[in-house]
Amino acid sequence: MDRERHQNLQSIIMLRELVRKWWRAELHFADRHGQVLDWNRGEAIASAASACCRLARGSREGLRRCNQSVRELHEQFVGNRRLRRAIVQPCHLQFSLVAAPLYVQDEYEGFLFVEGLLREPLTAGAREGIRARLRELQPAALDVERAVERLLVLDDDNLEKLTVLLEYGTGEIAAYEAERTREQERALEAPARGGGNARFGHIIGRSAALQEIFKVLEKVSNSEATVLINGESGTGKELVARAIHDNGPRRNAPFVVQNCSAFNDNLLESALFGHMRGSFTGAVRDKKGLFEMADSGTFFLDEVGDMSPALQVKLLRVLQEGTFLPVGGTQPREVDVRVVAATHKDLGEMVKRGEFREDLYYRINVIRVHLPPLRERRDDLPLLVDHFLRKHHREGQRARGLSPEALALLGRYAWPGNVRELENEMERLLVLGGDLELLPADLISSRIRDAVSPGGSSSPLPRLTGSLHEAVEALEREMIHQGLLRTGKNKSRLARELGISRSNLILKIARYGLDAGLPPDAEADA
């Protein structure tokens, strides 16, 4: 298990901060052998509730006893596989260890725990006993009194909160590992399903547009060049960025993600570059920024077009010099990070309007990957539908696909939300119609039905039989045929309505034999 990845999960970062804020304690990871990772690395913990524990581990004998207390906790989990909830157990200093076991695909992988807490106030005798044991382990320690005074009492309400949070943390890690396993399985299955490139099997599709992207990714992934991914919201920009990372020389290093439109300027600066203690109200300790967390790996900056001019300057400095200043800092820090940026905006136009720095634009636009919207890769719709139905299928659901009418309806929709919108619709259909073998068209969201047939009226659909691919081809032929009649054979207008290029439309007209009676490339473009 990759604990470094787990500690960089946003949910685990949040959990650690909550434990520090509410109980002034520290979250620890123990592996499947009962070994505590940060103790073995000798990392110092500054949390108040752990002060006595830190003193104890400062000696060889104290570290041995602390590890023995954790091993006893570990043996409880190993000895009882039915024990899946958080438990409380005393350590050698009679403090409480609160721990939740971690199971991944029903395999025990260790536990999360918090130490250094009391279950009830100390009596004078108990307080003196703790002082004596600490002085035995650390005779020269000067801060024993202060450490004992800062011990916190964990009442029943707080114990319940802490156990719920620890169980939430183990659940998040288990879900993360399960999704990684599913991604690996889908990557292996993708070539057999006609999904395209084996190296990028988690990117579903075999359209000509995606094949071109795969060719670019093959070359880009093995380089260290900065990449700019451009595409509408929901087209899979983060998926492509992760593919670049996973297939490149930094695949074993961190992959860090930040959406630049998620925070205001001050919060984004702190998130990217970190801050020093006292640099602003609430900055009670030094905090690493995401650039430091991504050191030696890849940093995916989504919606970089929303970054303010001031932060654009700082980003340019990192890209050019590999250095930055934390908020409130005076000493520059160095990082080695590959940046992959993404935006749905036209950065070239923003440069012309003075809204985006020209030097930064050329620095991040070394290699550009354009992701087409779903309406320009409708050939991939059956594969994507099948993929998302598999992904969101739950035990007990009978649904094995869409009815031909439902697929035809989806094929006529423009998908402004692109692949993300399609996935949400598939999940919704499974919830509403999971007890049916084929999901019918009348379960599709009203916004989609109304967009395709305003007012709820439905135009006649062709009879669709055979495979999903054949059904989409039949629908596509009928849409183009009806469109040519409606537009008076105006191919430019029809191409705009269908959301495809004019040259692509001409190829499809020839493919389906619809060019009979059409003058050679002639049309009424008035």
From TrEMBL:
Keyword list, A-Z: ATP-binding, Nucleotide-binding, Transcription, Transcription regulation
A GO molecular-function term, please? ATP binding
**A Pfam entry, by short name:** HTH_8
Q: Where is the Sigma-54 factor interaction domain?
A: 203-431
What InterPro entries does the database record attribute to this sequence? AAA+_ATPase, AAA_lid_NorR, Homeodomain-like_sf, HTH_Fis, P-loop_NTPase, PocR_dom, Sigma_54_int, Sigma_54_int_dom_ATP-bd_1
One GO biological process term: regulation of DNA-templated transcription
Protein's UniProt keywords contain Transcription? yes
| Database matches in PANTHER family | TRANSCRIPTIONAL REGULATORY PROTEIN
Q: Quote the protein name from its UniProt record.
A: Response regulator of zinc sigma-54-dependent two-component system
